[in-house]
Every structure is written in structure tokens, then in C-alpha cells.
Amino acid sequence: MNKLKKANIQLCADAGSKYCPCHLAYSGDCIKCPIIRGEKTCDCLWQGVCVYSELKHSQNTPMCERKESLCNIKEVKDLDSDIFLMKIQVPKDMIRDLCSPGAYVLIKSKDKNSDIFNTPISVMDVDMKSCILEVVVKSRGIKTKNIINFDQVWVKGPYFNGIFGIKQIKGAYKINTVVVLNGLSQVNSINIIKRLLENKNNVEVFINNKATVLQVVIDKLINLGVNIYETDLNKDKDFLIDYIRRNDVAFVYSGGSDLFNKYVMNIVDSVDENINLAVSNNNLICCGEGVCGACTIDVNGQKVKSCKAQIDSRDFLNSRNL
């Protein structure tokens, strides 16, 4: 019971959205609400709309499910070896939520009907006025290599749990922040940086130049007006440590592999373990709804559905065998 209580203080990324209550709530497996799970005490610490009340009120109404839409591909651009930028026209009601930090969609080729071909793709950027979604796709398997061969693509979303630490990103206000990026995980940084800038934070970006660096991301960062350091983060570790220390950095986002994110976490913690940390969610995601179980991981001895549950970044990285 005590272990369950520890896990339950984690926020579900869908809580409070129009997609709550979800399938897990209706089946009695809600991530957030212990009452729905059949426990006797309410200890979810959720300060938004009560999920249990919403479930009771919506018993006789259809559940709001994410829709799959066949969308026109407006442009495909070759960025690197087997890496493509896609601009996709998506429905207006979808685009509104895709500007959230950590937003992603499930995409599959036009010629595939089964959901087993869905692949999670991070949102890079959105054009709200034109309803254009920009994503970067690496062609490396049956799910992705055929996506660009048609003038349309299936898009399902929005989903929100592409990063751990959404609360810390949205709560950062008028502080010094650092964004550290490595490889293709750099693409999900645009929404994060936009939110940090909207909240009047100072943002400095460090990109590991020993991994893939996408010029399309660099151009967007330049347009946002942030300072960019392209550097070898292995050799120049002390430079990053010194920057964080000298500038009283209070928040760091690390976008990279789990191994890279743990490396950055150790750098941050060498300065101050109280600095807020957010990291990219690199776990296997299949259905995006916590139903299939493919995303389930062990954190502090608890089974956690990582496609929906917000996990403390340090707890997550320390639970990985890296």
C-alpha cells in the first residue's frame, strides 16, 4: 500500500484534459485516482477537477477519444541520411494542443489500416494559423520507411507525455534555464523553449556537436532569439558546469538518450541537486493510452505506465540500468 501511495503522487499527463476520464478510469485502473482503483482513501494530491467526479458524471456520455485523421502532406524535405522533415495539414481541433511541451502524435503510412503500424513522433513545431504540423521522421523500419511515399498520412493525437518534468517547465518563471540537446531528441525542444520564453525565462541552449545536428532546429532556435552553444559535451563538461554555477541556473532540460540524460543529470547534480530537471521520454510507446502495457517500466519498485504518467526525472534515470 505504501508503495502505491508513492507512485500515486505522480501526475497523469491527461488529467484535467478533455481526454480524462480515459479507458483506464473506466476499467478501474486510473493512474491518478485511488478511489477509482477501489481504495478507501483519496490521497491523489490532485488540485484540478476531481477525476472520480468526472467519471461519475460521464458514465452515460461517450468517452472523448483521440481521433485518427487522414491528413495531407504539404512538404517533405530531406535533412540528412534517412531523416526527413514533414509538414502535415492537421485538423484545427488537433493543432491547438500540439504546441504543448512534450506533445507527440501517432503516425502511420496511408496504406496501413492496422494500428500496429502507429509510431510515436515528437512534435517539432506548429503553425497555428495554417494548421501545419512539423515533424522529423527517421526512416529505419517497417513503421517509418513508407510514411513519406504518399501524399497523405494517418495522424492520431494529441498525446502529451513526450517528456518527464512538464510541471517544472510550465512552472519556470523569470529564472535562468538551460536546454541541453543531443541527437534527434533536439526536435522536441522548440515547444519547450517557446513555453520557457513565454514565461519570461532566460534560455541558453547547448547542443552536442558530436551527434546529429539538424540545421532546421538551429534556424528555429535562432528565430526564437536564444543563445546557442554547439560543443563537444564530453570534452567541455566543465564549461557547462561552470555556466550553470555562475549563472544560478534553476532549471535544466535534457533532450537525448537515457544515457545522455543521466550524464547531464550528473553534471547538474554536481552543482546543485535542487536544480529542477526535465528529460525526454525515450520509452517504448505503442498505444499511447496506457492500455497495451508496452510502455510499462519499473520505478522505485513500482510498475509505471510511462506513456501517461509523469515521473520525477531523477527517479526515472536512477531506475534505469545505464
Automatic annotation (TrEMBL):
Alphabetical list of PROSITE patterns matching this protein: 2FE2S_FER_1
Pfam (any one): Fer2_3
Cofactor(s) the protein requires to work: [3Fe-4S] cluster; [2Fe-2S] cluster
Stretches assigned to the Succinate dehydogenase/fumarate reductase N-terminal domain: 263-313
SUPFAM superfamilies for the chain: 2Fe-2S ferredoxin-like, Riboflavin synthase domain-like
Domain of life: Bacteria
Family: Belongs to the succinate dehydrogenase/fumarate reductase iron-sulfur protein family.
Listed PANTHER family: DIHYDROOROTATE DEHYDROGENASE B (NAD(+)), ELECTRON TRANSFER SUBUNIT, DIHYDROOROTATE DEHYDROGENASE B (NAD(+)), ELECTRON TRANSFER SUBUNIT-RELATED
Protein's recorded name: Succinate dehydogenase/fumarate reductase N-terminal domain-containing protein
Natural source organism: Romboutsia sedimentorum
